[in-house]
Specification:
Layout lengths: L2 H12 L15 H20 L7 E7 L6 E3 L4 E4 L6 E2 L8 E2 L3 H10 L7 E5 L2 E5 L7 E8 L3 E2 L5 E2 L8 E2 L3 H15 L5 H16 L7 E2 L2 E2 L21
Parallel strand pairs: 5-6
Antiparallel strand pairs: 1-8, 2-7, 3-8, 4-8, 6-7, 9-10, 9-11, 12-13
Helix pairs in contact: 1-4, 2-4, 4-5
Length: 240
């Protein structure tokens, strides 16, 4: 479903004349200007603020050179996942140690203190790993993709740019979210519409991830695998 179709459906509910184009003569059409702003805000709100959607999870791998300790984050990086670890190819059973406190990171670098697993933190737009990864050694991590829009021109972006662009998640969520928010902004009764949106969001969130396989009383991710290795439970750092 394109953004044009979503906007037309919203217009039919809120009592606004449905457009033939959202973007045509946008500067002179205040209603479509507001609709587009609302569509972008609601799409990003659903994508970033509700859960870590499976479709928007991404993985990055860094290849060491023996020197570099600060690596630019991916261009589509939004944030780390709450359970993200950084895994080195030289230590596949335990992740690198996460240093959340920036002052502690600075102190440890000044003091020369290094955890035997290696350490990582986030500073600015960079992922810092210390000590430097050896040549051809890798470090991998997962993150949330900021690009929640599939562009008709090709590729992905974080905002709608053309009528044929599509929301990467459930378009019905976008439509329901835009409907209640539009009514709220215009001073119309919206509680029932917000309730419908909330119900749909909860259902979508519930079925976004498959249920864990339970062995005895533990999920399989917390039990010993057939290889004899014990799967490591992720750290749960709080990212700013």
């Amino acid at each position: 479903m394109t953004i044009l179709t979503v906007v037309r459906d919203v217009c039919a509910v809120v009592g606004v004349v449905a457009p033939t184009s959202v973007f045509a003569n946008l500067a002179a059409n205040r209603t479509m200007f507001e609709m587009l702003a609302l569509a972008n805000e609601q799409a990003q709100r659903i994508a970033y603020d509700t859960r870590d959607w499976t479709r928007l999870k991404a993985e990055a791998t860094i290849i060491g050179d023996g020197v570099t300790t600060a690596w630019p984050l991916p261009a589509n990086f939004k944030r780390m996942l709450p359970t993200t670890n950084v895994w080195s190819s030289t230590s596949t059973q335990t992740p690198l140690m996460f240093i959340q406190n920036t002052d502690m990171w600075t102190q440890r670098r000044a003091y020369g203190d290094i955890d035997s697993r290696g350490e990582w933190t986030l500073l600015g737009d960079y992922l810092h790993i210390y000590p430097a990864l050896g040549p051809a050694n890798t470090a991998s991590f997962t993150y949330l993709d900021r690009n929640c829009v599939r562009l008709a021109s090709g590729g992905y972006g974080d905002s709608f740019l053309a009528d044929a662009d599509e929301f990467r998640l459930d378009e019905r969520l976008l439509k329901l979210g835009m409907t209640w928010q539009w009514k709220a902004q215009k001073g119309s009764p919206y509680s029932e519409d917000m309730g419908t949106y909330s119900d749909a969001l909860q259902i979508a969130m519930r079925f976004d991830n498959p249920s864990p396989i339970i062995i005895d009383r533990l999920p399989i991710s917390q039990t010993r695998g057939s290889s004899g290795l014990t799967y490591y439970l992720p750290q749960t750092p709080t990212f700013p």
